[in-house]
From TrEMBL:
The keyword Repeat applies. This is Leucine rich repeat containing 8 family, member B. It comes from Mustela putorius furo. Residues 140-218 form the Disease resistance R13L4/SHOC-2-like LRR domain. Keywords: Leucine-rich repeat, Repeat. Coiled coil: none annotated.
Length: 263
């Protein structure tokens, strides 16, 4: 057995799992909101590559996880994490590439996040984060970053250092302005900016030639830049914006978007 899915209300990881399934590579536990208290025997599961502890009422990241040297993916969705100070210990997990801390109560990200140099996917959506530490942008292997549904008011210019970024979501924050550095992320394919406080969209958006999805709906935009024509991969159906804003674009631009749709 390599994969085990459990949906239950456990207070501890059953010893039978750790003793009889040493070769387990994926463990997914949805505890349906019940508090998972004892996790020490997780240390025995040294072959785990993927661990999901969902709705376990965890308030801190369990220390036993830091012994799982083969871990590639960790998902702690729908817990009660308020602080993730222990994040520095993840640097010992050299294989960890995907970290999902979504749907928690995290108020800030510690600077030590920068030590996780092998991270490729980071999900921090649906938390209470107000600021991003500049050290986050040392995680230069990131290609997926979701910060939707937080309380961010700006994105640091240093985002330009995430040169491998393909998916960036900040839907439903309080962002008023986009840094020019964002448009240096030339590999961006999906950019989700809906439900913020943006007053304008930079002409530099046209430099994102790989962009296939752009969400802008629910901002304070009055026009769209004609430079959108430079987004050669963007289809009309994947430009999520108010209809009246499309009418502010020059006709050749809207025709090209529509042509892209017809192909």
């Amino acid at each position: 057995l390599r994969t085990l899915y459990l949906k239950s209300s456990l207070s501890r990881i059953p010893q039978v799992i750790t003793d009889l399934l040493p070769s387990l590579q994926k463990l997914s536990l949805d505890n349906e909101g019940s508090k998972l208290v004892v996790l020490n025997n997780l240390k025995k599961m040294v072959n785990l590559k993927s661990l999901e502890l969902i709705s376990c009422d965890l308030e801190r990241i369990p220390h036993s996880i830091f012994s799982l040297n083969n871990l590639h993916e960790l998902d702690l969705k729908e817990n009660n994490l308020k602080t993730v100070e222990e994040i520095i210990s993840f640097q010992h997990l050299q294989n960890l590439s995907c970290l999902k801390l979504w749907h928690n109560n995290i108020a800030y990200i510690p600077a030590q996040i920068g030590a996780l140099s092998n991270l490729e996917q980071l999900s921090l959506n649906h938390n209470n984060i107000e600021n991003l530490p500049l050290q986050l942008f040392l995680c230069t292997k990131l290609h997926y970053l979701d910060l939707s549904y937080n309380h961010l008011t700006f994105i640091p210019e240093e985002i330009q250092y995430l040169s491998n970024l393909q998916y960036f979501a900040v839907t439903n924050n309080n962002i008023e302005m986009l840094p020019d550095g964002l448009f240096q992320c030339k590999k961006l394919q999906c950019l989700l900016l809906g439900k913020n406080s943006l007053m304008s969209l930079s002409p530099h958006v046209g430099e994102l030639s790989n962009l296939t999805h752009l969400e802008l709906i629910g901002n304070y935009l009055e026009t769209l830049p004609p430079e959108l024509e430079g987004c050669q991969s963007l289809k009309r159906s994947c430009l999520i914006v108010e209809e009246n804003l499309l009418n502010t674009l020059p006709l050749p631009v809207t025709e090209r978007l529509q042509t892209c749709l017809d192909k």
